Amino acid sequence: MRIYVTQPLPEPSLGELLAGATVQVGESGIGEDELIRRVSEVDAILSTPPVPITTRVLDAAPRVRIVANCAVGTDNIDLPACRARGVVVTNTPGVLTEATADLAFALILAVTRRLREGEALLRSGAWTGWKPLELRGVSLEGKVLGIYGAGRIGSAVARRAAAFGMTVFPVVDTDPPERFEDLLRSADVLSIHAPLTPETRGRFGDAELGRMKRGSFLVNTARGPIVDEAALVRALESGQLRGAGLDVFQNEPKVHSGLVGRPDVVLLPHLGSATEEVRLSMARMACEEIARFFRGDPPVNRVV
Ligand code: DGY
Hints:
Elements: E1 2-5, H1 14-17, E2 22-25, H2 32-39, E3 44-47, H3 55-59, E4 66-69, H4 79-85, E5 88-90, H5 97-112, H6 115-124, E6 144-148, H7 152-163, E7 167-171, H8 177-186, E8 189-192, H9 206-211, E9 216-220, H10 229-237, E10 241-246, H11 257-260, E11 265-267, H12 276-295
Parallel strand pairs: 1-2, 1-3, 3-4, 4-5, 6-7, 6-8, 8-9, 9-10, 10-11
Helix pairs in contact: 5-7
Bound molecules: (2R)-2,3-dihydroxypropanoic acid (DGY).
């Protein structure tokens, strides 16, 4: 059995769980044409979020029977194309829930309490001591946390918010449209936890950001394209939003230039699941799906 792994993974995963297979490990940043050359003879692809598994890639890999994504989100994979070819797709839900919720909450605290500005002031050497008017942020207690996409991760963020004395306003995709409007109107902090789908792509544009509470905060640890970054910059510039915490971006790894220099924005390089424990669990889950599949056992987390 031949397996192509799109980026290096934490071990023990490949070396232990796919020991009998011929495994080729790719590196970050190779283009689609190079990927196509590498997958032509493989039976399985172990994919990672920055590497798109497109129709062209699948067409070039006629032997592939399973794509095991080392992520819960599967927006990097052309799922209809996999379905049409009978290629199984799996993901890694559950193990990253708490770590991603932790990071979302870290961003919520960072933007509302102005940690980036405080740190910059201190490191600049310009801080002259405690002042009653200095860098006042916003208290979370008594505020409304809107959760767009209250699945596993959104619900874990909601539990943290309750411990901080916040009122939680969750919205799921089956809710009536009025509830989304109420979310925009009522959230002091709006945290995004929905998957990227055709319905959620661009869900937060000029119109929606304009209907948010003036002076509220937006946090996104889900997928960048859910938010129109240019619209977000405009909302921050106009004071409609008071700050934003972003772990994901519309065109990763690029970040809109209007966000980079802003002191009211905290930017992280897609770190939601980035703990040693969680990244190892994700790698092992993806390897196990491939091993199980080729043993003839059903996948545990099958998406397609
Ligand atoms: C996921 O799992 O979808 C994350 O974005 C990567 O941890």
